[in-house]
Backbone:
């Protein structure tokens, strides 16, 4: 499948997000990042805590204002000042699933209201009966019983609460979902269930995901392509297996080396790499976004490009 034939649903061009601190200079959380997400795929965005990955997700749903660059959804610019009806359309078509199902659900509301919240905002139902039918369907879609609607979040387990969070996103009939570390606060035994659910929903509803995570083994399982972000800069991007087989950037290699290996003998002998940013000499030879292998991009300067091309054979 050539990359050009696929429909791009979301385009991020030279995105910069800054936070104004107490000092004079604003902190740049996302620095000139560009990538596309194709319709129907799961795009994984990976990096350590504080790398800027969540900030990108929040900029797409217009929670964080952007300092530069463009975010295009189906070819229309959605960052900055936009027309009211486009804002409403974005609210419906782009939904977010948050990391902590405890914190993202209002404890004082019943599940019925929590799941309907978005519908109330956009008046997305004909009458009360229609709204209740939509809530029941959304709960069934995520494997919960419709009668759970009359309960409160504290009556549920972490995995069930995350399902409620997913139902809240689904009820809007979105096309694009940002899943921000959706399983990192769940028990290991529940994680696979939630990942399988997300993949199932993608199949049945034709969804596109931006899957944000610090855990590469999870991303390998769910993502079609992966972007690796370090301190606000995108340093590598490739199809998932390509990235795991041929990581070029030292930061990507360090992340991959930290993945636990299920075999204890190998695990004991493996060496975890530590990324040291001073290994790059960018004083004169500045890095640029370069395609080393088909569809495999890396941030590198001329000297590094030659080195990576030699590695790529």
Residues:
């Amino acid at each position: 499948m050539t990359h050009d034939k696929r429909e791009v649903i979301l385009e991020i061009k030279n995105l910069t997000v800054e936070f104004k601190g107490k000092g004079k200079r604003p902190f740049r959380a996302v620095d000139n990042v560009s990538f596309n997400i194709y319709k129907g795929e799961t795009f994984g965005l990976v990096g350590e805590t504080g790398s800027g990955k969540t900030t990108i997700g929040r900029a797409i749903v217009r929670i964080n204002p952007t300092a530069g660059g463009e975010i295009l959804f189906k070819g229309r610019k959605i960052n900055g000042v936009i027309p009211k009806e486009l804002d409403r359309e974005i609210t419906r078509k782009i939904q977010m699933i948050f990391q902590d199902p405890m914190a993202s659900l209002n404890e004082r509301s019943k599940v019925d209201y929590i799941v309907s919240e978005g519908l109330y905002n956009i008046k997305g139902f004909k009458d009360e009966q229609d709204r209740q039918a939509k809530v029941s369907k959304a709960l069934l879609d995520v494997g919960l019983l419709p009668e759970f609607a009359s309960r409160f979040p504290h009556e549920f387990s972490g995995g069930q609460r995350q399902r409620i969070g997913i139902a809240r996103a689904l009820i809007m009939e979105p096309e694009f979902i940002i899943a921000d570390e959706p399983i990192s606060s769940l028990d290991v035994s529940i994680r696979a269930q939630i990942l399988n659910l997300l993949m199932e929903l993608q199949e049945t509803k034709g969804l596109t995901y931006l899957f944000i995570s610090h855990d590469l083994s999870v991303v390998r399982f769910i993502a079609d392509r992966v972007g690796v972000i370090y301190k606000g800069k995108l340093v590598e991007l490739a199809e998932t297996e390509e990235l795991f087989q041929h990581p070029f950037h030292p930061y990507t290699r360090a992340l991959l080396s930290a993945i636990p290996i299920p075999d204890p003998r190998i695990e004991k002998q493996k060496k975890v790499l530590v990324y040291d940013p001073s290994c790059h000499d960018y004083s004169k030879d500045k890095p640029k976004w370069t395609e080393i292998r088909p569809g495999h991009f890396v941030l590198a300067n001329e000297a590094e490009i030659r080195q990576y091309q030699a590695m790529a054979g």
In short: The chain has two domains: 3-246, 247-313. The chain has a mean pLDDT of 93. The first helix runs from residue 53 to 60.
